[in-house]
Amino acid sequence: MISSDSVEYRPDILGDDFEQATLDLPNDYEGQVVATLIRKKAAEPTKKAVLYIHGFIDYFFHTEMAEQFNQHGFDFYALDLRKYGRSYLPHQKYYNVHSLPEYDAEISEALDIIAQEGHEAVLLCGHSTGGLTTTLYAAHHPKHPLIKALWLNSPFYDFNMSTLEKKFAIPKMAAMGKRFPNMLFPSRLNKWYVPSLHADHHGEWLFNLEWKKLRYPLVRLSFVHAIHEAQKEIHQGVRLDISTLLMYSHQTTYPRKFNRDAQTSDVILNVKDMVKYGKKIQGDVTLCEIQNGLHDLVLSEKPVREKVYAELFSWLESKGL
Fold it and tell me: What is the pLDDT of residue 6?
């Protein structure tokens, strides 16, 4: 366990009272590993905090979300996981993971730091692959003294493929990924998603296009293996002992050219899978559909994300947080 006295914060790239600290982690199959803890404290002292985990090909840049939590009395923390964003090291392959529990080290260390900084209640949050990771972290750490609730933003509970592909192709690719982790396979990620977000294209957000790339046509089979193993556990039905809010868009679409669908729907994952497997989670789970939501709901158009925050903070209040 790291001592909070040894955590050295410095100004973050986001400015405006955002700070970051590097977490040194045990070496892995690529050598040196670090993660980055970002924080923004609320105006008044509080014992409540948020820990946010980003998705695949992503990093934390969501200043509005942090400010929303600050305004509602939460200190805000986020992780850039190993090999992502601020945590990427030159000798590493971007986003390279062989098993999602690899991320438990930085999540656990971040929670230890949050506890040592005087917090007694944490809302754990995850988007997309981060939603899958945080669901399993909560399931594997029941009765955690700090985690009091879980917020899932479009969790990656299944591959967005046909039934036949999911039944036959994915298990075969996952098995190959265990033996040949660096083998590449077409990602099939919709090419309009990131352009729908970035201010230089069709969106309103500024972020680093090296860290959150416009296109990512090929994915390592190690990632397919890691996700498949994690999703198998979700599909069997995990138990959570904390209240959980699962949010998702009202529809999934597959735009081949840029159009209104790219700005009003989930073009990455199938929202029906989120509902299907969300209902299999044992425990207090609330499902919340967001009309015209993007895959990352808090990056949707302003009226849509205002609805996201209204639903979220109403739910948190109902749970005593």
Answer: 76
Q: What is the per-residue pLDDT for 153?
A: 98
The pLDDT of residue 5:
58
Dump pLDDT digits (tens) for 97-141: 999 999 999 999 999 999 999 999 999 999 999 999 999 999 999
Greatest CA separation for the chain: 53
Q: How far apart (Å, rounded) are the C-alpha atoms in residues 8 and 113? A: 11
Query: Where does the chain have alpha helices with state H?
Result: 63-71, 104-116, 129-140, 163-164, 170-179, 221-236, 261-264, 271-278, 302-318
Residue 242 tokens read as 């904390």
**Beta bridge mates, 38:** 20, 78
Q: What is the mean pLDDT of the chain?
A: 96
User: Coil, strand, or helix at residue 173?
Assistant: helix
Q: Are 294 and 263 in contact (CB under 8 A)?
A: yes
Cα–Cα distance for residue pair 95/213, rounded to 1 Å: 12
Burial profile 252-265: b = 16 or more Cβ within 10 angstroms, e = fewer? beebeeeeebbbbb
Q: Give the H or E element holding residue 246.
A: strand 243-249
What is the model's pTM?
0.96
Helix (H) or strand (E) holding 22: strand 19-28
Non-local CB neighbours of 45 within 8 Å, separated by 6+ positions: 118
Please answer whether residues 40 and 18 qualify as being in contact, where contact means their C-beta atoms are separated by less than 8 angstroms: yes
In the chain, the domains with their CATH numbers are 4-318 (3.40.50.1820)
Whole-angstrom Cα Rg for the chain: 18
